[in-house]
Amino acid sequence: ELPLSAARARLLSFRSHTCGELTAHHVGERVSLCGWVQYLSKNSKVVLFEFNLFFFSLCFKSASHLKSVLFDLTVESVIKVTGTVRQRPAGQENKRMPTGEVEILAESVEVFNVCRTLPFEIKDFVKKSESLRMQYRYLDLRSSQMQKNLRLRSQLVMKMREYLCNVHGFVDVETPTLFKRTPGGAKEFVVPSREPGRFYSLPQSPQQFKQLLMVAGIDRYFQMARCYRDEGSRPDRQPEFTQVDIEMSFVDQAGIMSLVEGLLQYSWPAEKGPIKVPFQTMTYEEAMRDYGVDKPDTRFSMKLMDLSEVFLSTEINFLRSALSQPEGSVQAIRVPSGAVRANPFPVPPGHTKHMLQARMYLYVNSSSVSPSYCTSRSQRPLLGNVRLLCAELLESRGVSVRDPSAFRFLWVVDFPLFLSKEEEPEQLESAHHPFTAALPEDTQLLYTEPHKVRGQHYDLVLNGCEIGGGSIRIHNASEQLYVLKNILKEDPSLLSHLLEALDSGAPPHGGIALGFDRLVSIIVGAPSIRDVIAFPKSFRGQDLMSCAPDFVSEEELKSYHISVKWPTEDEQTASGRCSSL
Amino acid sequence: ELPLSAARARLLSFRSHTCGELTAHHVGERVSLCGWVQYLSKNSKVVLFEFNLFFFSLCFKSASHLKSVLFDLTVESVIKVTGTVRQRPAGQENKRMPTGEVEILAESVEVFNVCRTLPFEIKDFVKKSESLRMQYRYLDLRSSQMQKNLRLRSQLVMKMREYLCNVHGFVDVETPTLFKRTPGGAKEFVVPSREPGRFYSLPQSPQQFKQLLMVAGIDRYFQMARCYRDEGSRPDRQPEFTQVDIEMSFVDQAGIMSLVEGLLQYSWPAEKGPIKVPFQTMTYEEAMRDYGVDKPDTRFSMKLMDLSEVFLSTEINFLRSALSQPEGSVQAIRVPSGAVRANPFPVPPGHTKHMLQARMYLYVNSSSVSPSYCTSRSQRPLLGNVRLLCAELLESRGVSVRDPSAFRFLWVVDFPLFLSKEEEPEQLESAHHPFTAALPEDTQLLYTEPHKVRGQHYDLVLNGCEIGGGSIRIHNASEQLYVLKNILKEDPSLLSHLLEALDSGAPPHGGIALGFDRLVSIIVGAPSIRDVIAFPKSFRGQDLMSCAPDFVSEEELKSYHISVKWPTEDEQTASGRCSSL
């Protein structure tokens, strides 16, 4: 490991040291520090602050001379101080800071910039409204929390690269973001070209390119890939996001899973404690059965329990009638301390309707068990939600359910390869994407009972959030053609380049994509991915600082052969800072 | 440094070793190799090829059994071979390959994929037409040259990251590519949003964001930044490209230059020989005077020489008349071996017109000096071109002028800050961009004679190509406002967020951007940046493999409130593979 070389860094900068470097060892040395003024006291004592989050106290030899320099300064002004390091007066040490034993006896001050009066103090910024933080993002980022988040993100990605490139010989390949529209890619931004009627598309992932790179013999590809998804205003989604994109040749599911475990273990921030590998693995069936969801939060138990056998000869009417139905069952969640701490157990707000639809009943009066009645498997997600709501409810009443410092990774495997389309149940669609290979033991079912086929797909779940997904791909052209044409009823000509490539010596291959923004947000404990992205968009897709997107003149659009179709007045909506332009 | 651990890599893959790993040390070991069949002889001898460019010979224990397996195989089919390593028979060793002493006595073969008959053999691909290579890019990339290029690129970027993150504490920050249109950003792609009439823009560089990050206290930022430029069909430009984007606080020009020198020295591929730092530095004035260009190729001399004094009392009419004009001068290029090797020295094809316009004359009959007559400084670029053409001409006749293995870096500094607009000479425009600070000694001229101001801009030149440019930025809001409003006559409200940021405690800062694709292409000696980009666009901006850009239905455009304005029939143009859709 190469250390941050203070000597080399010094040569490149006006400063001789960073604020965080100075300790009692430097007493007597003449130094120059640069930073932002945090506090100015009447006796010209100044506290200096810098990117590495260390504060530093300054005193002045000749207060009268320097007072004139400091007179106009405001908090957050930028200065350079030259002076001598000295021990702080006895009793004034600050033991909480590594630099707290020393201070600078300043000889000269150079003022680089005087700060205007800010709309808020930096330290209060994180408490302010989201839109204010976004409008003044350059100030928001100066807060210690955002500095920590962005620096941890940078270090994490560096460690990941070291692991992939240096340990495992992966090749970092950049793939285009101006590409062709994916069949059915309804969430893809379009980019008009200078050829009339033709548009590029900003891809949701480099899926096709990574597979083509395997055909190209790259063997091990990775990329911190910028991806784009136009989802309108879904909360906590961003129109552009970053994924750790990985693909390997001559590999099976176990190989990819082992690689990812090694990757996370190697790059995991030391201060968050080590993580254990291998991660727990669970089939999709087990996840749905035990947790009612395909991304279980395994930091706590409270699994769904099947009590059907207990009630086989029950006299309770609605339970008996449920059990007489096809796939009918009685499910329960055991809520430890539920009866004591959350009695009467309320129906969580906003969920009454769903629960009635599911014909589900909660009993917590006399025991800590909440039996619930499901008519079919499809109701399980509702029970999964109830489980999570129970945890939240208990936590809100002071019961410790989930360890906030725990990181529980989980692989979910053996997903169904196809699902029935909601609007057209006879027709199948890919559960993930059309390139996923079937489990070897299910491959023959493709041609007979495709709805029963399980795919070689794997999801990585962390604390109940899906942070990654991948699969072993189909590497056989005729199998891929069959899936596209006969099962999914899609036009295979749109993917003819991929089919041709598979027919040109494609190796067996597979890969994964990790949602990097989400992963970082969980690691730093941020409530939103916006807290780990330097310049995120608002939930309406706007950059509130610059007011993007913005109007473009019809003249400028001419070279792209498009024109704006203005909506009628009633259709128009406008709100927020950037809508009044 | 972490080595590529064969043991760990093995666990993740079907292979026990890569083809390039096996040497005489492995004789007797049982191994599994995966790869592409390169050659199949009648006695079932197979040559296997793999990503790391090593070939491997296979022999078969039981030829009769394996013959049936191999019967259907074509070249470029993908197989796995399991067998035992053995010494090659005496006389059959291949000393040119590390693996040439051994072969595999194969026991079993698994066929993963049979390759169709390819349009060309892989090894011939690089000789084929550009459009064919692009259409079958996944095959083109299988060639050893493209494999080397992409792998070197990946290693180079990894070393750069190590230097910036691990040695100098830079923070890797991702900035948005969906942003606001830059004032005058005529080359920016637009991306329609769901808000009527509003468009994002794909930025040409993260210039504003990197400056905002300095205001945000990030101190040292870098990013391998994807940038976008819509230049229609300029040769050897790509609509998306990658730059090494760097910005630092509390730094001066010398600091940035020293950082970049260290960066290139640290990351330079060992096989290309070491590079010396510091790089040569030259002012813009010197470059124009001596080389007639602001990006001189310093691998050879042949500088422009001012012979005005020699001809002060000349009787030659046209020279006398030239010298009598304001800024008139007589310039010459001394072409070593020019008279001998290129006699008569021809006017290079296609340049006759330019040279007549410049009223330039070449004499090479009696000496090796080519005097040329310039009416003013503005003719110097023509002389600079002649210098390069002379070099090309000599090289085409077998004279060694430029060492093809030499890498000559050069800093060009002290550029003019503003230039007169061509169409409106009274009006100034930024020579680079409006954020560049003046040289400290020229700052006062901003308010009096702005056309005389030199900027703190620096270009990095390698072998006559500009591979980077940067500057110390204006960090004072009122100076920035003055430049935008009073000198450039631009509407400052479009940059109000940046002006506000500068007023909020902006540190002094500066940076640079290196054109990464161009840098890699020079290092590997590729004729085009398309040879170092995995999936480049054609010169018309098309992806010839997938036929992007493509048509999008009017229905799909509805949510973006745009419609296509189809040109009339005469305006339409169509050609090439992807235009017939």
UniProtKB/TrEMBL annotation, chains A, B:
| Recorded GO MF terms | aspartate-tRNA ligase activity; ATP binding
Ranges of residues in domain Aminoacyl-transfer RNA synthetases class-II family profile = 150-536
Work out whether the entry's keyword set contains Ion transport: no
Q: Name one GO cellular component term.
A: mitochondrion
Tell me which Pfam families the record gives.
tRNA-synt_2
Q: Which InterPro entries match?
A: Aa-tRNA-synt_II, aa-tRNA-synth_II, aa-tRNA-synth_II/BPL/LPL, Asp-tRNA-ligase_1, Asp-tRNA-ligase_1_N, Asp/Asn-tRNA-synth_IIb, AspRS_core, GAD-like_sf
Example of a GO biological process term: aspartyl-tRNA aminoacylation
Q: Which UniProt keywords apply?
A: Aminoacyl-tRNA synthetase, ATP-binding, Ligase, Nucleotide-binding, Protein biosynthesis
List the CDD domains hit by this protein, alphabetically: AspRS_core, EcAspRS_like_N
HAMAP family, per the entry: Asp_tRNA_synth_type1 (MF_00044)
Which family is this protein grouped under? Belongs to the class-II aminoacyl-tRNA synthetase family. Type 1 subfamily.
Q: What is this protein called?
A: Aminoacyl-transfer RNA synthetases class-II family profile domain-containing protein
Organism (species): Dicentrarchus labrax
Its lineage opens with: Eukaryota, Metazoa, Chordata, Craniata, Vertebrata
Q: Which gene encodes it?
A: dars2
